[in-house]
Automatic annotation (TrEMBL):
GO molecular function, one term: transaminase activity
Enzyme Commission designation: 4.4.1.13
Cofactor list: pyridoxal 5'-phosphate
Protein name from the UniProt record: cysteine-S-conjugate beta-lyase
Amino acid sequence: MTSIPQDTSGEPNPLRALTLDRLRRRTSMKWRTYPEDVLPVWVAEMDVPLAEPVVRAVTDALALGDTGYPAGTAYAEALAGFAEKRWGWDGLAVERTRIVPDVMLGVVEMLRLVTGAGDAVVVNPPVYPPFFQFVEHMERRVVEAPLGADLRIDLGALEEAFRRAVEGGRWAAYLLCSPHNPTGTVHTADELAAVAALAERYGVRVVADEIHAPVVAAGANFVPYLSVPGAESGLSLMSASKAWNLAGLKAALAVAGPASAADLARLPEEVGHGPSHVGVIAHTAALHDGTGWLDALLAGLDDNRRLLADLLAEHLPAIGYRPAEATYLAWLDCRALGLGDDPAGVFLERGRVAVSPGIDFGTGGVGHVRLNLATSPEVIAEAVRRMGVALG
Ligand SMILES: Cc1ncc(COP(=O)(O)O)c(C=O)c1O
């Protein structure tokens, strides 16, 4: 029988710090969307206490009444320092950054800078559902370039999508998810350079959502899109929000390459009214002082990926799962279970466990579910048990 691994590291694993009773006191989306008898392992919120440097920075700000409007470049400086230490990338120029309210609103603003109404935005399904919703809400057309069977970018499909996107001489953008949600795919430097070359050839502008960048497993290498040759005209969105669980403390950064600086400079002043000053303080502290906490989280996630693989192999071997190199999301192929297009609905109804329905992620999502691994090993074991109950 699979046993839950013991915590042996020096830095405490934040995924083991909170009990379910305590988590159920939370009022956020993860905990309040379903009734109390449902175990929530869906939306990308983490079951962790905040990193101590973040708590201290926010508490100090509140004690001081430092709750006005954001100013300065501390967040961008902290991100530039993090990028250099973590990814060996020294090309993040603070003067080519702007604070935006969050990553998705940043994506919308970047797409507005480089496309017009009716233009196409290429995405790689299965992909984070708001990529469809936000793009359509802003009157752009989604053009799909599905991932290959290996869950990696299919350059042939991408080229075909670029060709369709620019038909009639229209502007077009490519919304790259790096690392990729829900598959956890970490794109290689070669893949990203090939993307940049294709984008250049077709005149497609690349907007990279790099929100999951700090959440990369040991042994995998995140490559910032703007660091690859040929990506100078790209735009990137980064944030501490996924890696440090700060979604409720709104702040993210838009980053321009050397050839897109003039585009970013056209970002309307009003956009700067969205981010929260306290959010900026929290995100800055995370990037600046929160790397010890992040490393403990990453070690805990490695354990959780292994645990899930073992539990599935033992109890639900018909589910396909390849532990990913990044994100805290597990993409589960449930097609062999015979539960139809939406196994998440069956797991919820019969097993009282909430996972994200794969169908929401577009082409390639049918028969799949996404499970959030950013929780305790006990919750993962209970989630698998409940999935088994749903199968009867
Ligand atoms: C790929 C991706 N982009 C954006 C977001 C949302 O980020 P934000 O809350 O900063 O808009 C998420 C959240 O899970 C995500 O997975």
